[in-house]
Amino acid sequence: MHDLTYQNIQTLNNLLSEAVKTVIVTHAKPDGDALGSSLAMFRYIRMQNKVCCIILPNRYPGNLDFLMDEDTSSRITIGEHHRKEAERIIMESDLIICLDFNAFHRTDILQDALTSSSAAKVLIDHHLNPDRDAFTLVISETQVSSASELLYHTLMKMPDISGNACNLPPRVIEALMTGMTTDTNNFGNSVFPGTLE
Fold first, then answer.
1. d(CA 124, CA 174)
2. Which helix (H) or strand (E) segment is 138 a member of?
3. CB neighbours of 57 closer than 8 A, spacing ≥ 6?
4. DSSP bridge partners of 120
5. What is the pLDDT of residues 164-197, one digit of tens each?
6. Rounded CA gap, 3 and 107, in Å?
7. Largest CB tally within 10 Å, which of 1, 17, 48, 106?
């Protein structure tokens, strides 16, 4: 995984530590991987008692409701229902974490706000051809099952996790597992040795 370098992990850790308002964004019509990776990142950031929220371009499918809890539900804004609010949150943030998409056009109605934001932007994604020039930091790997799997590998390298999955809260692990399960069709495709490990 060529982007999971010590320097990139340090950069990500510094950006998260210095951020006052972090927003997490994923692609339009979010699926299990988009929502799972977003919730895992949200819960990881909340572990550090930091201000964080999630903006989804559209509502996620109802079969993923089990991933929600009171803290999470109250910090999700659906762009198609509250576009002005979503744009305001993006413009007021100083760090934007982008998960499970390779370019801003995949966020549909959020594209203009994301493009014009002066916040630092981090991309963690598994799709081909990431728009590297649009981001402050890119962690991209196509030889993984999902953004959730790539986020797992990323979090495992963070200083406070130190390679020990027991340091990840169960709700983070549940969200990551959901993303990996749905993006592989229950481990029927796009499965690599690292996925099963």
1. 19
2. strand 137-140
3. 26, 27, 28, 29, 30, 78, 79, 80, 107, 108, 109, 110
4. 95
5. 999 999 999 999 999 999 998 888 888 888 888 8
6. 23
7. 106
